[in-house]
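pasting for the record
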Amino acid sequence: MHTQVPLDGIGRLVAGRHENPAELLGPHPVEYQGRKAIAVRAFVPDSSQVWLVDQPEDAPRPMRRLHPAGFYEAICPLDNEQVSSNYRLKVAHNSGEVTIMSDPYAVEPLLQELDRYLLGEGRHYELYKRLGAQLRTVDGIDGVNFSVWAPNAKTVQVVGDFNNWDGVLHAMKVHPNLGVWELFIPDVKPGDIYKYRILQQDGQWNDKSDPLGFAAELPPRTASVVTELDTHTWQDNAWMESRRESNQLEKPFNIYEVHLGSWQQGGDQEHGWLNYRDLAHRLVDYCKEMNFTHLELMPISEHPFTGSWGYQTVGYFAATSRYGTPEDFMYFVDHCHQNGIGVILDWVPAHYPKDGHGLAHFDGSALYEHADPRQGEHPDWGTNIFNYGRNEVRNFLISNALFWLDKYHIDGLRVDAVASMLYLDYSREAGEWIPNEHGGRENLAAIDFLREFNVVVHEKFPGAVTIAEESTAWGGVSRPTYDGGLGFTFKWNMGWMNDTLDYFHNDPIHRSHHHDELTFSLIYAFTENFTLPLSHDEVVHGKGALLSQMPGDLWQKFANLRLLYSYMWTHPGKKLLFMGGEFGQWNEWNEDGPIQWELLDFDTHRGIQNLVRDLNKLVVENPALHHDDFTAAGFEWVDCMNATDSVLAYVRKADGFGPALMVCANFTPVVRKDHHVGVTQSGRWTEIFNSDAAIYGGSGIVNPGMTQSLGIPHHGRDDSIKIDLPPLGIVVLKHEA
């Protein structure tokens, strides 16, 4: 029978190996008997006959069967019949059933010229509105437009429950210059599960989850789930408007770091996980009670291995199904915002795991990663490193960051393992890494990526913050890109954390020899916009809980922990504390079970909780402790040289925004009666916080009432006061006008 379709093309199509099925299927202009016509072709296996139906009221036109496997064609002259994408196919199946279906190959692509241009340039920052599974209505027919980047694939199919996981029916069309495959499939709906079946150049087939999938099955299942992301009615307008208009550097950040699966448990799901909605109410109530201003969530992007805590991400655009649906997580964020709590997500652009359904070797080639393991494999974690020098990879990551800020109203991203991104020789021996084009160890492509990420985030979402976990001496991490910096809002102060914990591990009798470990941080405190972290990393891998790390007997352990927190909360910088630390958990954190809430039956642990609650309140209510965290104008030493007594005295201030506060700290268990200390202002000073107060489990060495300055110069000041310094304690005094 006459046809213009190459027979070898039909053979490859029937075998599921045609490199671009759209060349054959759907409507195509042809010359027929010397006249212009449209050839409509369809491949419908297991059918006995297929008819073309132009309009619902029109009589079906039988299509010619060109291949016994189910390849059909109908020729429609253009002079009296116009065939458009709204035609239907009437199918008589071998089972005897007759159905009406739309033709996936008759639909115009969702990716238009501008999309293709931006994709090629690597600047399509709203990638999540084009790739992946996009709900779409075409000619009155609802369905899903699937798109995926796989430039080295020989062919790509969409498989799922809707086609009984037989991809022959839904081989995708390719945009040749982009390497993006696309197909609209009618009647697919939210909740349907799917994957991409990819034919690699070596002839092997591989099923992959969607890199831009908005939801995924509950692990260990690995399929992506078609999801509608625009159903939630947000009620956080006031929060979002206030965030846009605020200078985040001048606001209090008391961050409570949480692993959602093990903060509290008791749900009906496997492992006792709670739903995002239950967690929203419980966490918001607790944060408000404890005066935390922000939640930082360990990664909630979909990850196959629960024990990775989310740091080995596979579904970068999918909120993990462990705790509910995307709609449930939107409710979580919305409820936090309506109650004045910000939400920060841990984000992991430094590496990703090698799980077979994920990004690794996605289309049979090193697509998202480097081909050379000296660049593309992380030796510590056994994971792949993103190829930041590739436009499409940078585009993927930056659009992912914007996705969380846009679709989920997230207030900030804490970027994990930045140091591993900056250095080509990170955790590598000589000969295990490749220098940059100048012979150096800096990863120039990663640096460019981080700068672009920060510029775009701050430009498109004013008021959102970016936080770098960066542990080296790299300069300008939180400085603007136009000044040569990386552009982050904040940087974790890992130096402060390590020095301070090292100091506190010492028995107090030896601390006089380590005094500089406390004072050194103020030499560089204002070179970056620092956050002081006591994160999950400090209470895992055999380190023990913070309380168990403190030296001394039981009383001294609790007193040292109260002292550590009080010193941290009065030191310049924003604050972060991992869950369980706020009441002095004894055990090292374990993600398989909840933190030790039962310890709150004991006065000592309730005392620690009371202390953290009041320290948070102290920071929120006193601009001196948050407004000028990043400038030398907000801090002044009074006494930093008293190593013999292990005593510090310093002033926190925010001129024009409230009274100054003076902090006096005693790092030994010796009570220092009538301790003489210089003051920056004459007059009366009132004790507003004392870590040794009985409510915190302390011994009650406090300074009640007001303390009048003596008119005696001391510590280079014109005036001074005398106060009692409690054992292993901190006193905070406010100047009374």
